[in-house]
Amino acid sequence: MPPQPSLRFLPVWRRNFLVWRKLTIPSILGNLADPLLYMLGFGYGIGALVPQMEGMSYIAFIAAGTVCSSTMNSATFESMYSSFSRMHVQRTWDAILNTPIDLDDVVVAEVAWSASKATLSGVAVLIVATALGLAQSWLALWIVPLALLAGLTFASLGLIMTAVSPSYDFFMYYFTLVITPMMLVSGVFFPIEQLPPALQAVAGVLPLTHAVAIARPLMNDAVPAGLVTHLLVLVAYGLVGFHVALAMTRRRLLK
Q: Which of 95, 126, 180, 235 is the most buried (most CB within 10 A)?
């Protein structure tokens, strides 16, 4: 059965927002601290040894990658740990499904909410990078919709894991075998051209690579080459991920 979402996902999104609002400060701090530590630590530390990379300072090079990796991590964490809590531990989804809201609306709301938090995380890092003089153009504002698109993509992929997970421990496989390697080979910390050809081919099909390929030129006053291709890859990952996540969630909860 194809997805049948409706605007009834909005009350579910609002419910998640109201719960998050009670923990706004620690939540923002948690989303902001890690990426900033990576960006400032690697940027100023390794940057002292590597003055320039692709015509820019090293900290400016990793700033765009940090925006994208922060977005990925936020969307993935929210769509796995938090969604699993609402679905399996707290039974929040069961309560919602006893109202006129369908499971499709709940899944759409989880994707939208995870993407919203991911956008907030990416924008927060972008603001700090701008304050440090690492974003040199108004083109950097296009990173806001890019963060939303990347958030939708990684949230959809994360929900696939949530649909099949028996416990929180299961998520470590995804983080260890997928998310962490993807962050290391997708051009966040160094150009993918430094990788062996086989790894370059792998990196070329990863969604984070395409997000970074868009964000880095935008933060340096340039229009990304191959922009349409990069966007289509992110959209394709998001659509396929959402359909698979919805099908597997239906099989888990409606069987």
A: 126
